[in-house]
Amino acid sequence: MTQREDVSNSLSLKVVGYNIHSCVGNDGLYSLERISSVVGRLDADIVCLQEVEANNLLPGRPSLTRIWSRCHCDDQAASIANLSGFEYHVFVPAIKSLVVGKLQERHANVSRCDVSGNHDDPDWVEEQEGETKASGTDLNSLMGRFGIALLSKHPIVKLRIHTFQRYKKKTLRNAIACLIRLPDGTLIWVANTHLGCHFSGREQCQQARELAAFVSSLEQDNETRGVVVCGDFNSPPWFRSMKVLRDSGMCDMFESPAAAASSGSRYGGTFPSSCRLLGVPTCFERLLRLDYIFLHHSGRRIVCKEVHVDDGANSCVASDHLPLIAVFSLH
């Protein structure tokens, strides 16, 4: 079991953040099985995934959703959850997309029925099967969904979604938060996001302000244990977006005492994953830090006791990012 108890009877919760690059590895190969192998090996309670696709299941018509992806007819979140042993999952796309030229994509807005998964939130009952299947041959019917997902071994009892305001003509981005019920009844919010990638950092800063407000709005009471926030923030530590989040009360786990006590790099370099194979010196890894796990404080009821980057051989090939792992103690 992944739900553990230490000598002080506190609960231990392992959370992973992982940008899976649409299941396309550094070798250019598309492999759901390889990503699922990495996720399964990490033996986490909760996994937050970014760059996840769910393509329409049209017979003989696999979709190419993003220009870096490959043609397939997979619901990646559902497949990874099944292959790596997660009973609950939710997939929330930010856009629908279809590659229509060499470097050209056609995007469309998503709707409530594009959200999918296996969870216990009565406010998010799935639409009838006939309403979610694609039909026809128009561009919209061929579009795949692209966004973020959360996998959990424990029930997801609430789902909250926030779509960021579009920055200029950049791709829409979003954030989700799931209230997880642990085996002893403890409740904890876990949020997942994927911020924009504007070189100036202005897009990320705008989205960070919205994310901070979204996290602060989550219902908390005496039964909840704070908010863990995972994601690909497309922001090195010195970007203003990181200051916005820190000033809002979020604690970066790689700046916590747990980082100093954990094995491996203190800087949390996760991108590009191939740098580990190339032997890039650890002192340069801070330049490659784009993925974070934050803790939004809620008293002393949840503490990070370990944080590290997984750089196993298959992790260095399966995606262009490495998984980021944090283990929390809940009192």
Give a short synopsis of this structure.
InterPro entries: Endo/exonu/phosph_ase_sf (IPR036691), Endo/exonuclease/phosphatase (IPR005135), GPI-anchor_lipid_remodeler (IPR051916). The protein is of the alpha+beta class.
Please characterize this protein's 3D structure.
With 331 residues, the chain is α+β, with helices and mostly antiparallel strands. The protein contains 9 helices and 15 strands. It has one domain (4-330): Deoxyribonuclease I, Chain A (4-Layer Sandwich), CATH 3.60.10. Strands 1, 2, 3, 4, 5, 6, 7, 14 and 15 form a 9-stranded mixed sheet that branches. Strands 8-9-10-11-13-12 form a 6-stranded mixed sheet. This is Endonuclease/exonuclease/phosphatase domain-containing protein.
